[in-house]
C-alpha cells in the first residue's frame, strides 16, 4: 500500500441488530464503471436482505453517471411516494475515479453536497454511496474485487437499514 492508501475495512460493529423487514429501500446507481458499481449494488442488496428487507421492497433504478445521482434519487423518492409506495431510505451508488483534469473534483463536490442537502430537504435518510477514488485499483478494492478489498456496498446496505429505523423512531 502507498502512503495514501487507508484501510478499506468496513465501518465495524453496529450498536444493535436492526430488523429491516418492514422497510422499503431505494437504490439509484450510476452506469459508469459498471463492474465496480455492479459489485457495490450486489453487496448492498445482500446486506439489506440479511437484515430482513424483502426483495420486493428493494427498488433499483439507474442514472447515466454520478453527477445525476442527486436528481435521480429525488425523482425515485417522488415516484415511489406518488405510487403510494414510499421509501424509508435511499442509497445512491456511484464511482468517481480521478483523472488528469479538474472534472473529478467538481463532480465529487457537487454530488456530495447535492446528496447531503437532499436528505435534509426531503427529511429522509440518504446514504452516501459515492466512491471517490484516486485510482481504479482503489475502486476495485472498495468494491471487494481484489484480494485485499472490502465491498463498501455491504456497509451502505447495513447503514441504510440502521438509518431508516432510526428515522422511523424519531418521527
From TrEMBL:
Entries under Gene3D superfamilies matching the protein: Lumazine/riboflavin synthase
- Cross-referenced HAMAP family, in alphabetical order? Lumazine_synth
State the organism of origin. Answer: Nadsonia fulvescens var. elongata DSM 6958
Record-linked NCBIfam families: lumazine-synth
- Keywords, alphabetical: Riboflavin biosynthesis, Transferase
Its organism's taxonomic lineage begins at: Eukaryota, Fungi, Dikarya, Ascomycota, Saccharomycotina
Q: In which pathway does it act?
A: Cofactor biosynthesis; riboflavin biosynthesis; riboflavin from 2-hydroxy-3-oxobutyl phosphate and 5-amino-6-(D-ribitylamino)uracil: step 1/2
From the UniProt record, give one GO term of the biological process aspect.
riboflavin biosynthetic process
Note the superkingdom of the native organism: Eukaryota
Role description:
Catalyzes the formation of 6,7-dimethyl-8-ribityllumazine by condensation of 5-amino-6-(D-ribitylamino)uracil with 3,4-dihydroxy-2-butanone 4-phosphate. This is the penultimate step in the biosynthesis of riboflavin.
The entry's cellular-component GO terms read:
mitochondrial intermembrane space; riboflavin synthase complex
Subunit composition?
A: Homopentamer.
Q: What is its EC number?
A: 2.5.1.78
Q: What is the name attached to this protein's record?
A: 6,7-dimethyl-8-ribityllumazine synthase
The main enzyme category here is transferase
Recorded GO molecular functions are: 6,7-dimethyl-8-ribityllumazine synthase activity
Amino acid at each position: 500500500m502507498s502512503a495514501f492508501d487507508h484501510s478499506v475495512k468496513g465501518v465495524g460493529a453496529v450498536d444493535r441488530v436492526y430488523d429491516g423487514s418492514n422497510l422499503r429501500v431505494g437504490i439509484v446507481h450510476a452506469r459508469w464503471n459498471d463492474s465496480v458499481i455492479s459489485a457495490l449494488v450486489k453487496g448492498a442488496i445482500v446486506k439489506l436482505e440479511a437484515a430482513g428487507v424483502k426483495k420486493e421492497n428493494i427498488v433499483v433504478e439507474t442514472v447515466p453517471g454520478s453527477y445525476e445521482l442527486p436528481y435521480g434519487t429525488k425523482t425515485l423518492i417522488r415516484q415511489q411516494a406518488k405510487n403510494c409506495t414510499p421509501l424509508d431510505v435511499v442509497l445512491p451508488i456511484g464511482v468517481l475515479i480521478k483523472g488528469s483534469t479538474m472534472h473529478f473534483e467538481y463532480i465529487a463536490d457537487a454530488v456530495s453536497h447535492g446528496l447531503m442537502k437532499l436528505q435534509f430537504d426531503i427529511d429522509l435518510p440518504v446514504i452516501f454511496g459515492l466512491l471517490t477514488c484516486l485510482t481504479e485499483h482503489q475502486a476495485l478494492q472498495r468494491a471487494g474485487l481484489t484480494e485485499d478489498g472490502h465491498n463498501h456496498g455491504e456497509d451502505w446496505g447495513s447503514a441504510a437499514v440502521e438509518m431508516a429505523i432510526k428515522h422511523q423512531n424519531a418521527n
